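# nightly structure sweep
# worker-07 picked up a monomer target from the shared queue
# config: single-sequence mode, recycle default, output format = structure tokens
# input follows
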Amino acid sequence: MFASLVGTYLDLLLVGAGRYSFPSRPFSEIFTINILFTLFILPVFSFLIILVLKRLHPISRYLLLFICSLFVYIAEQIAEQFGLFIHSTYWKHEFSLFGYLLFFIVIWKFYSWQVSHR
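# output follows
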């Protein structure tokens, strides 16, 4: 749920700032962001990452998070070729690489904090 909230607010912020847009999205007349991604794909992907991270050594966790960020970095460029994304001329895909790495670290840290405070 936390991943969905963070992803939704980041998309709202970046779409509102004109950094990128989603020309093909569900309920485009209501939402400026792709709610399919922020409400389903991102939370499921985050959940799967957490399942794996729980079983890894701390150094391996950050390596996996970097690999996942690299995957998203590549997937985003492929999605752009299919017309699912349009980035502004100021956008550099490296923003996504480091942005997703930071996003996944925050999600992992939030999960770890939550588990330690039960």
